[in-house]
């Protein structure tokens, strides 16, 4: 049995970020001992993925950033283009393997951090804290007791919600024969894709050089597609819309992100907490998670090191969650055309302000001004309807 001040279950973005912040030198307060418990290689580990977020200047994980940009573009279904500068913000891309390698190097040099590979089967309360039980790849039993446990494992079932959509996507990492990409501009949403009967779809291009980019096809709808359908959509987008010409696909990524107004429990026992997407860090209306994870883990680490009760703070403001709930319901009912809604917002609101809004960093008067650029009557009808709607379990993808 191993004892630690803090046990962190899962070594994805949330688990690694929390362990990294708890063990950082010179952050004030007492550095707790940390046990970081990650699943052995296999199906319990999340696939490699790309995380995007925005922040001003250099951040804590700048060494892991693959590329960053200060210009964004949005393309409506008619081919009209809106582009804008987001300075002082930068839109950043981090690949999970680069983030993991950076954090792993730091953790290996810090005293008081123990990394354990085990499939966690139980997290239970015990006197004075909690216990994590699991099994290694070799079949050995592992037990870790800690004053506090932070669990970042994906939930087996989503909480009941009034509205749940899925943001599902497939991306190609491509290398083209011709220099077809502008490395200075992210194509954030390109609605020149066939729109599904329910929801919306768009293309997404993160250029890393004149010949290289991550090109994704994304849908907001109730269920994922087959691999064949994603591949057909990407072929259409790269060949018929972007007209990239000859290219090779050097890698792929696929993901499903729940977009839900469900309330997520951030505490499951006296000493057990959920963090990351399992603790509600995913922004319901956009699917972005990484920036909220950083805010959440910073607050937890500061509380732990100061000897305070480290209840994870809400990842998003109540006002932001309420607005997201309205938007999700309006999209799900078809009261607003999703492609037109987002294209119009980017056309009428400065890109830097809109990104701050999407990150929950705008003030009330800014939120109200942005709201006036949405279809007001359908949104007001949805606001009136929401309190009457029951929360229902989501059947799952």
Automatic annotation (TrEMBL):
It comes from Streptomyces olivaceiscleroticus. This is Lycopene cyclase family protein. It comes from the Bacteria.
């Amino acid at each position: 049995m191993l004892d630690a001040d803090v046990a962190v279950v899962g070594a994805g973005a949330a688990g690694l970020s929390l362990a990294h912040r708890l063990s950082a030198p010179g952050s004030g307060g007492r550095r707790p001992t940390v046990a970081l418990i990650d699943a052995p290689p296999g199906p319990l580990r999340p696939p490699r993925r790309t995380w995007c977020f925005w922040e001003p200047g250099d951040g804590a994980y700048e060494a892991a950033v693959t590329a960053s940009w200060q210009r964004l573009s949005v393309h409506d279904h008619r081919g009209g283009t809106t582009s804008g500068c987001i300075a002082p913000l930068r839109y950043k891309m981090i690949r999970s393997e680069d983030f993991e390698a950076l954090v792993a190097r730091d953790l290996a040099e810090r005293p008081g951090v123990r990394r354990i590979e085990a499939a966690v089967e139980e997290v239970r309360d015990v006197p004075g804290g909690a216990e994590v039980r699991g099994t290694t790849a070799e079949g050995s039993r592992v037990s870790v007791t800690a004053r506090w446990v932070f669990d970042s494992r994906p939930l087996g079932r989503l909480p009941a919600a009034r509205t749940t959509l899925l943001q599902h996507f497939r991306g190609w990492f491509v290398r083209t024969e011709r220099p077809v990409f502008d490395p200075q501009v992210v194509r954030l949403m390109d609605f020149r894709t066939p729109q599904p009967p329910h929801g919306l779809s768009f293309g997404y291009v993160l250029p890393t050089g004149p010949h290289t980019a991550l090109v994704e096809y994304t849908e907001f709808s109730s269920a994922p597609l087959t691999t064949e359908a994603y591949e057909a959509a990407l072929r259409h987008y790269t060949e018929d819309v972007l007209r990239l010409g000859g290219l090779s696909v050097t890698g792929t990524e696929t993901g499903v992100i729940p977009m839900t107004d469900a309330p997520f429990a951030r505490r499951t026992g006296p000493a057990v907490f959920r963090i990351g997407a399992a603790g509600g860090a995913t922004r319901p209306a956009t699917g972005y998670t990484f920036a909220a994870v950083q805010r959440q883990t910073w607050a937890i680490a500061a509380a732990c090191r100061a000897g305070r009760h480290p209840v994870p703070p809400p990842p998003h403001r109540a006002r932001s969650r309420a607005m997201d709930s309205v938007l999700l319901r309006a999209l799900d009912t078809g009261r607003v055309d999703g492609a037109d809604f987002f294209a119009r917002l980017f056309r009428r609101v400065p890109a830097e302000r809109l990104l701050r809004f999407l990150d929950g960093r705008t003030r009330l008067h800014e939120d109200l001004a942005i709201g006036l650029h949405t279809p007001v009557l359908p949104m007001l009808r949805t606001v009136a309807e929401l309190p009457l709607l029951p929360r229902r379990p989501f059947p799952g993808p």
